[in-house]
Amino acid sequence: MAYPFRSALFALDPETAHRATIAALRAWGSIGAPFAAKSVLDESLRVRLAGIDFPNPVGLAAGLDKNAEAVPGLLGLGFGAVEVGTLTPRPQPGNPKPRLFRLVEDEAVINRMGFNNDGIDAALARVGTLKRRAGVLGINVGANKDSADRVTDYAEGVRKAAPHADYITINVSSPNTPGLRDLQSRPALDELLAACDAARDKTPLFLKIAPDLDRAGVEGAIRAAMDNRIDALIVSNTTISRPGSLRSSFATETGGLSGAPLRELARAKLVEAREASGGALPLISAGGIDSADETKRRLDAGAVLVQIYSALVYKGPGLVHDILAGMR
Ligand SMILES: Cc1cc2nc3c(=O)[nH]c(=O)nc-3n(C[C@H](O)[C@H](O)[C@H](O)COP(=O)(O)O)c2cc1C
To answer: Are residues 62 and 85 in contact, defined by beta-carbon separation less than 8 angstroms?
Structure first.
């Protein structure tokens, strides 16, 4: 069923609706959210990963709150963790608009935002003012589009984020920065992860991969992650593939596809990652998760945690509570 203000948001272009959502969450975070958060604490849902206590296994995926503007409001929706970013060392505007598309008939999103963000320093200044948090904070880092040395960009992001983050995600899987995903293959991935490992100062490090890697690519990423002491793998980012089932006229837009049409691929890549790692590397599943049933399916398939983004657009902010209630 549609949530109350869905039609109002859908009447706006997607980026304006996104900004309005962040503004509302920011306002709510400063008033009611800290009280709401307490109501979803349930001991049976707690998860411990990499030394971090997650109040529940349902996290917000990166990209919704790139600049860490609405963390208390988002935790107040019930998320066990909020991942901000992707943040780059220097601010950058991202790709020309339009760059965000709702595929309503498909319950999907295509984005080619291109890491638009205020830069990591501005976001960390916001994070530094947060009081004791009701949940876990992840900081997702990436490289500037025009960077001459991407490895140094990531290492700088990790070094700066480490004092502020419960965990840091190394995002090498966005399709919207040309050449970025080449960092997913060895030996480039080993060099990158070794530099991030050296910069982390004990903060847990997660690696986020694309669902478009083939089985050998997933295996290679897992070996590199384990060789470089990565604590968990996030499977996955958006896909550049386009299932034949898509009905929306936006289906041919360039960018990463997320939401319902990503569900099967994300599930299949989780299974591949589970097989390749033999359980030795904790897995976090993202892609098309929109219900308690789907969350349970991912946990049963070997994920320790899940992350959600696109389903919030279609099912609204009450989704997190609904999922948690359905898991008890
Ligand atoms: C508009 C939009 C922006 C995104 N930006 C980022 C980002 O900056 N960094 C990142 O790691 N993932 C980003 N993602 C990917 C999500 O974090 C997630 O991995 C993906 O959308 C699959 O989950 P979903 O089907 O629940 O949306 C973005 C997704 C969307 C829809």
So the answer is: yes
Q: Report CA(181)–ligand 1 centroid distance (Å).
A: 15
Integer Cα distance of 76 and 78 in angstroms: 5
pTM of the predicted structure, to 2 decimals:
0.97
**Angle of helix 292-300 relative to helix 263-277, nearest 10 degrees?**
20
CA dist 107 and 240 (Å) reads 16
Distance between CA atoms of residues 325 and 205, nearest Å: 30
Tens of pLDDT, residue by residue over 89-107, are: 999 999 999 999 999 999 9
pLDDT category at 280 given cuts 50, 70, 90 is very high
Ligand 1: list residues with CB < 6 Å. 61-63, 66, 85-86, 100, 109, 111, 113, 140, 171, 174, 208, 237-238, 258-259, 262, 286-289, 308-311
The catalytically annotated residue of 147, 173, 174, 258 is: 174
249 is catalytic: no
